[in-house]
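Appendix B, record 7
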Amino acid sequence: MIDSLKSLLHIDGWQPIETAPKDGTPVLLLEGDIIGLFYFGTEPDFVNFRGKPMKPNWIGTIIVSDLVRNESGCKMLKVYGSDATHWMPLPPVPGADQP
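Structure tokens (predicted):
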């Protein structure tokens, strides 16, 4: 699965991050060779060093990265904030258009 997701690094369809939806819609974000599943919003448990709620930002999970590994290979990592440069809508679920 990770290899098929890595193939997304090389396909057309990535759009500039400035055009990404900021309404809570889940999207794929790209930063270099890192791909993550993110949405723009807030989480009540995230607070700053003063204990105040964090401002809305990209929140998600890195799903493809050669930098994030554990003893079994790849590892998902929850992230608040992103320096992503591009985004892409989620691909359709296989077979979703079939009854």
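Remarks on this record: The beta strands are 15-16, 27-31, 34-41, 57-64, 69-70, 73-74, 77-80, 86-89. The helical segments are 2-6.
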